[in-house]
Amino acid sequence: MTSRIGDIVIDCSDPELLAGFWCSVLGYRIFDRDETGVAIRGATVSPDILFIRVPERKAAKNRIHFDVCATDGDQQQELARLLELGARRSSIAAGGSWVVLEDPEGNEFCLMSKRIAPEPEPFHEV
């Protein structure tokens, strides 16, 4: 018997802001929202991402983070796009093949140099 990740849950101050940012980054769509937060989903079997409102602010470096890879261009083109969407460079030192960034609430993520194939056509919003 095995398990799979069903949801990735991210505590945040502004679920709408982060859901919009990550939808733009990943090509996901909002599929549910309520008073506690916003849920986004990709077109494939990837886990849903839930942004849940919490009262406290982020206090330290993330212990888990996303590594994202460009699908339609090189790393520098994707870096420019992510910065335009609202990401910012992190003060955390980057490695040789990745760039450390932060989303609008300061959650770290890495932009990798490798490129991956784009996802299939997105599903329709509910």
Describe the protein's topology:
Layout: E1 7-12, H1 15-26, E2 29-34, E3 37-41, E4 48-53, E5 66-70, H2 75-85, E6 88-89, E7 98-102, E8 108-115
What's this model, at a glance?
18% of the residues lie in helices and 34% in strands. The chain has 2 helices and 8 strands.
Kindly describe this structure.
This protein is α/β, with parallel strands linked by helices and 126 residues long. Helix content is 18%, strand content 34%. The strands form two sheets. It has a four-stranded mixed β-sheet, with helices on one face. A four-stranded mixed β-sheet has the order 5-8-7-6, covered by helices on one side. Strand 3 and strand 4 form a beta hairpin. The longest helix has 12 residues. The termini are far apart.
CATH class of the largest domain: Alpha Beta
CATH architecture of the largest domain: Roll
Number of β-strand runs: 8
Helix content: 10-25%
Number of domains: 2
Relevant terms:
4-stranded mixed beta sheet, 2 domains, 2,3-Dihydroxybiphenyl 1,2-Dioxygenase, domain 1, 126 residues, 34% strand, single chain
